[in-house]
Amino acid sequence: MSRVREQLARKNRIVIKIGSSSLVHSDTGRLDYVKLEKLVRFLCDLRNQGKDVILVSSGAIGVGAMTLGLVNRPKTTSLKQACAAVGQGQLMMTYQKLFSEYHQTSAQVLLTFDVITSEERRRNAINTFNELLQIGIIPVVNENDTVATEEIEFGDNDTLSAIVVALVKADCLVIMSDIDGLYTDDPHFDPNASLISEVPEITEELWTMAKGTATSLGTGGMTTKLKAASIATAVGADMAILNGERIEILPELFQGDDVGTVFHAHPELHFQLEEYVKKLEM
Ligand code: GLU
């Protein structure tokens, strides 16, 4: 077992991001309650181990679209926003019910990208997170899709989860997606593509390899995951990409199994969040 994987069990402040496609049944697009229940139970167990836990959950637009009876993912911004407003409430209701079954309290935190550009908003967000975590609450984070037009069109929750890592100074980020991890090439097209287990450093070659492969429900492809990794690792967190098809993969990661792709933290690169995000052209 590598030293970095071995140390995952000792992380204290963990952000877990789950993508839309990992939350729903692929054939109906409706919430997979069995999976959600397993996810929540694992997060509550991390809390019981004394760790701080933050969940970044997508799914608002997808769940809202199902409820409104839409067959395809909405295309116009206003319909996406309407779907997000319906779906976010439903998602949160489900999370709060499940968390309370394991005696944990969760809180909804909706963010927009101005937590990067506005010093005051950043400070407010940091204070709220710190207060919640100190009381022992599990924040459930999403973009505030109703007001964040540009987030719906360009934003993604991979980047958001890395920004949350920077705000709360987490030491670990796990991104649950519909792909096993970072591959040497796009596995949908190249049968010889192989899974990369560990990334000590994000090189130019990796950026070239990470061709956009957006999922059908969410907005993030491999490039957004590399962006997330470059932010999270530079603020001192190790980051893992896991396939969210099986929630059991989460405990496997934290016991050191060779699952997914793990990016090594580089706290020595520590940057000014605002400048760095601009550099990534987000
Ligand atoms: N905020 C969007 C939603 O909840 C998801 C964005 C993403 O998946 O990256 O539907």
Commentary on this structure:
There is one protein chain. The model is unreliable at 212-219 (pLDDT under 50). The termini are far apart. This protein is globular. The protein has helices spanning 3-7, 20-23, 33-48, 60-67, 77-101, 114-117, 119-135, 149-154, 157-168, 204-209, 222-234, 249-254, 273-279, and strands at 13-18, 52-57, 106-111, 138-143, 172-177, 198-199, 238-243, 261-263. With 282 residues, it is α/β, with parallel strands linked by helices. Strands 3-4-2-1-5-7-8-6 form an eight-stranded mixed sheet, sandwiched between helices. It contains 13 helices and eight strands. It has a single domain (3-281), classed as Acetylglutamate kinase-like (Carbamate kinase, 3-Layer(aba) Sandwich), CATH 3.40.1160. Glutamic acid binds next to helix 4 and strand 4.
Which value, in Å, is the CA radius of gyration? 17 Å
Question: In CATH terms, what is the fold-level topology?
Answer: Carbamate kinase
CATH superfamily: Acetylglutamate kinase-like
Bound molecules: glutamic acid
Cross-sheet strand order for the largest sheet: 3-4-2-1-5-7-8-6
Quote the beta fraction: 5-15%
Helix content: 40-55%
Return the domain count.
Answer: 1
CATH level-1 class: Alpha Beta
Terminal-residue CA separation: 36 Å
Total beta-strand segments? 8
Our count of helices gives: 13
How many strands, which pairing sense, and closed or not: the largest β-sheet? Answer: 8 strands, mixed
What's the CATH architecture?
Answer: 3-Layer(aba) Sandwich
Shape: globular
What value does the average pLDDT take? 89
SS-derived structural category: alpha/beta
The helix/strand series, from N terminus to C terminus, equals HEHHEHHEHHEHHEEHHEHEH
Name the poorly predicted regions: 212-219
